[in-house]
Amino acid sequence: MNLANRITLARIFLVPIIMVLLLINVDLKPLSFDGSDFSITWNQILAALVFIVAASTDGLDGYIARKNKIVTNLGKLLDPLADKLLVAAVLISLVEMEKLHAWIAIVIISREFAVTGLRQIALLEGTVMAASKWGKWKTAVQITMIIDLLLNNFPFAFLDFPFDQISIYAAALITVYSGIDYFVKNKNLIPLTA
């Protein structure tokens, strides 16, 4: 259990904390600004901060593992699992909070499962599928969307700019495109006959 794997495990352990913050109603006065319709609960602010910390560990654990040459099979298994758990849990919470349509969450989560399955097939074939540039963009756009939704479109709400809606559809589009990209580039791994 090296440092990189501990960081990955910490990301997994932050998932239920985020969900509790989002889904348990604490009766505190929301933060609001005079002369504005904008308000946000303290739970959402805390959840957003914990999510930012968790999401920022995604690149950190991989960097530490590669730099110190401590890449392990456990890390290869836990890292993508931690990413999927984090994103899926927050997306489902956002659906429950009525901040995200269920079909968007289903599209994003389905793509994650499909690409994870393809990666497992690649591992069985002795191949490691590296993250593509579209996969990295997908992650960045999804994280941006989630943070914006957790913060009720702050600061764009003050400008009457629907960044939250734009980020939702951008995340859905790039998620689908990056999934298609993975399958097209790795079509040789998919058996055409049973």
Automatic annotation (TrEMBL):
Record's function text: This protein catalyzes the committed step to the synthesis of the acidic phospholipids.
Enzyme class: transferase
Principal location listed in the UniProt entry: membrane
Pfam family, one: CDP-OH_P_transf
InterPro entries with a match to the protein in the record: CDP-alcohol_PTase-I, CDP-OH_P_trans, CDP-OH_PTrfase_TM_dom, CDP_ALCOHOL_P_TRANSF_CS, Phosphatidylglycerol_P_synth
Lineage: Bacteria, Bacillati, Bacillota, Bacilli, Bacillales
GO molecular function list: CDP-diacylglycerol-glycerol-3-phosphate 3-phosphatidyltransferase activity
Domain of life where this protein originates: Bacteria
TM stretches of this protein: 7-25, 45-65
Pathway(s) per entry: Lipid metabolism; Phospholipid metabolism; phosphatidylglycerol biosynthesis; phosphatidylglycerol from CDP-diacylglycerol: step 1/2
Cell membrane as UniProt keyword: no
Cited NCBIfam families: pgsA
Similarity annotation: Belongs to the CDP-alcohol phosphatidyltransferase class-I family.
Name the record gives this protein: CDP-diacylglycerol--glycerol-3-phosphate 3-phosphatidyltransferase
Coiled-coil intervals: none
Gene: pgsA
Lipid bilayer topology: Multi-pass membrane protein
Catalyzed chemical reaction(s): a CDP-1,2-diacyl-sn-glycerol + sn-glycerol 3-phosphate = a 1,2-diacyl-sn-glycero-3-phospho-(1'-sn-glycero-3'-phosphate) + CMP + H(+)
